[in-house]
Amino acid sequence: MRQTSHRRYPVADETDSGEVRRGVGRVAAELGAGQYAQGHAELVATELATNLVRHAKPGGWMLIRPVPPDEVELIAVDHGPGITDLPAALSGRSTTPGGLGCGLAAVRRASTRFDVYSEPGHGTCVLSVVNLAEPRPAADRRTWGGISIGVTEVCGDGWAVAELDHGVAVAVVDGLGHGPKASLATDAALTAFAAGPADLDRLVGRANDAMRQTRGGALTACLIDRDRQELRYFGIGNVNGRVLSGSGDRGLVCTVGTLGLKMAPPKVQLMTAPWPADGVLVVWTDGLRSRPDLAALSGLLSHDPGLVAAVLHRDFARERDDATVVVVRP
Predict the structure, then answer these.
(1) Residue pair 260/188 in contact by the 8 Å Cβ criterion
(2) pLDDT tens digits, residue range 306-323?
């Protein structure tokens, strides 16, 4: 159930754009895409990366990940000048110097899912999900998404989401340290989560047992019950979370401790809170600042959850640790 992590490609010149295109081509080929579908994904990658070079001085970065069985997710992120006339850019009518003004319109047509968040003077994030299947099915609006970016090639953080009959369950894990050994600890915790996503009462014990042969880590798991309009959760260690809504925001209560280090799991209380009808759950590891100002980004929360996660990472990442952000809007 573990979601794939994103690979980050810095983009500052045309050479970087070529590296992004080749990287997306490799991801598409690994997913079994045919030549036409692979070229389709590479076209989107080239357009987005070229936009970063031409308009987002001094460039930005691309986040790429496979979404099995047949999708590639691409997110272009920058701190550039922003898009002053977004409707014109999306319709291909933009006359911004340095381009033809039809890049975003072309990306939008080629994408199964597409979203843009731009603030003049602050930057832009563009999300494109390309379906490699033939023919490409229509996509539903996503209710959850996230990003996971490592400081080494293997990310030690991880996350998983399970759709349930009555709600949705989410787990976010931060394996101790970085790299492959941290990733193994995260795998163990998420395997325990997958064995019973709705069974939070016994998850602490299952995860602790599963992580005993690893270096251990932190875990926050949540269950949003739509029928009861209730949030149940626990947090162990440095994986933080908040519930945002029109009536305010509320932080999740986390317990100090680490799973997998001792035979007996850390003592933790399963918490229960009302779930607001317009609630948005945001969970993040300590690769982000511990108290990001999420309330100031209310206009962002209506966008695709994966795009929201990318913007939060852009604005609040420490840049010296693995970082994961998950956004759930059931």
Answers:
(1) yes
(2) 999 999 999 999 988 999
Q: Distance (Å, rounded) from C-alpha 147 to C-alpha 326?
A: 7
Where exactly are the structural domains of the chain? Answer: 7-131, 144-328
Would you identify the CATH topology of the domain 7-131? Heat Shock Protein 90 (3.30.565)
Question: pLDDT of 233-283, one tens digit each?
Answer: 999 999 999 999 988 889 999 999 999 999 999 999 999 999 999 999 999
Beta carbons of 287 and 52 less than 8 angstroms apart: no
Topology of the domain comprising 144-328: Phosphatase 2c; domain 1 (3.60.40)
